[in-house]
Recover the amino acids of this structure.
């Protein structure tokens, strides 16, 4: 990783900034009210990535850029962001947590199975504009100095991912703006926060001051996506699935591995399915100290020459737990 030479990034100059709003629009509070709009009306300001008047046309372009990698402007196809990936290969764009206030991989897997949502390394774009920091904690180990400007500013986080995580290029201004408009359509609404009757009353209460109301609303969803890197479990202490749950392992295999390695996917020529051939191929590597061992690949990904070709991002502890990894091993070893 460290070998990767950091380009001088002139684009990453924006720093977290606030937009002040002079009007105090009295908001009608209902289930569809945008959380960010409510907070902005209370605080009289908002961060620069929050757009109160979303332009639906820009949002549409932003969605296409995120899901297809290109869009059409003046009848012409725009330049693809990455030859290898689209953003939604690694990020969902729907709510992926059972409980958005307490993100955890067990709940996320249950929801993934129930609603057929991929179980991925990147955090969902839904609610990205509600978070307050990005590329948190251990990501500095992977991307070094690139993380500092991306931590506090969503705009920079998007650029970092477009260029580095996607093995692509920096976005042009209009593309970044379009993506921000799109993200502002998939932000939290009050109905996403699982509020009960007394919570709703609190929102309109005149007895609680604004600062308390802001804190109360922000306690209903996670303000950042934590990231803890784990080293692969050493060869001599691997229990090879003995403590794993086969059924859950199969669910992970399908919602995670096959989301990218499925036969119909084009991202990699390394194909996986649920046949004996695929499983047996993986099984042979599991006990070994080998980059193809599930114990290694899940925690380290493939790192070779990253940023210039397709690679596999690793799973942090928060995106796949050690127990889930053991479940996956149990399924493949069975
Ligand atoms: C190959 C996988 C991959 C692709 C493709 C990818 N990302 Fe990411 N992205 C990640 C990972 C891994 C992270 C690490 C942090 C996280 O999301 O938890 C991340 C982080 C982010 C974050 C910060 C999330 C947070 O809350 O910390 C944003 C925003 C983002 N990516 C935007 C994009 C955009 C826009 C694109 C497409 C141009 C894109 N990503 C393509 C893997 C990817
Ligand atoms: C976000 C997409 C994504 C997910 C999810 C994913 N992979 Fe990968 N994986 C890749 C890409 C891309 C490569 C690089 C392939 C290449 O070099 O052509 C790769 C490489 C690998 C390799 C090495 C093969 C090689 O030829 O380099 C193995 C083994 C592997 N993945 C297994 C898994 C398993 C098991 C899972 C489920 C836990 C999984 N992958 C989940 C995208 C993904």
């Amino acid at each position: 990783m460290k070998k990767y030479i950091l380009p001088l990034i002139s684009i990453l100059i924006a720093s977290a900034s606030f937009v002040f709003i002079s009007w105090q629009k009295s908001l009608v509070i209902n289930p569809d009210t945008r959380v960010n709009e409510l907070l902005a009306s209370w605080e009289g300001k908002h961060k620069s990535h929050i757009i109160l008047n979303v332009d639906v046309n820009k949002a549409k372009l932003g969605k296409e850029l995120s899901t297809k990698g290109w869009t059409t402007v003046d009848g012409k196809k725009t330049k693809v962001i990455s030859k290898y990936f689209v953003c939604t290969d690694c990020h969902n764009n729907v709510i992926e947590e059972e409980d958005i206030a307490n993100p955890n991989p067990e709940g996320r897997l249950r929801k993934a199975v129930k609603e057929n949502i991929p179980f991925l390394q990147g955090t969902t774009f839904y609610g990205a504009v509600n978070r307050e920091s990005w590329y948190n904690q251990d990501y500095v180990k992977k991307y070094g100095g690139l993380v500092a400007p991306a931590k506090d500013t969503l705009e920079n986080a998007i650029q970092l991912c477009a260029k580095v995580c996607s093995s692509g290029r920096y976005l042009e201004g209009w593309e970044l703006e379009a993506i921000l408009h799109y993200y502002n359509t998939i932000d939290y609404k009050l109905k996403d926060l699982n509020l009960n009757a007394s919570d709703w009353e609190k929102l309109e209460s005149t007895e609680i001051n604004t600062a308390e109301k802001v804190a109360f609303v922000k306690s209903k969803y996670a303000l950042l996506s934590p990231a803890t890197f784990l080293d692969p479990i050493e060869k001599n202490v691997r229990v090879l699935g003995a403590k794993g749950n086969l059924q859950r392992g199969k669910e992970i295999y399908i919602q995670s591995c096959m989301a990218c390695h499925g036969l119909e996917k084009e991202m990699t020529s390394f194909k996986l399915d649920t046949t004996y051939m695929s499983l047996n191929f993986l099984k042979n590597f599991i006990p070994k100290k080998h980059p193809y061992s599930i114990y290694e690949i899940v925690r380290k990904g493939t790192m070779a020459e990253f940023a210039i070709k397709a690679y596999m991002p690793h799973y942090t502890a928060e995106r796949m737990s050690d127990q889930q990894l053991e479940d996956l091993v149990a399924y493949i070893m069975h």
Notes: Residues 66, 81, 85, 87, 89-91, 121-123, 128, 131, 134-136, 139, 154, 157-158, 161-162, 165-166, 179, 225, 227, 313 surround heme C (ligand 1) (CB under 6 Å).
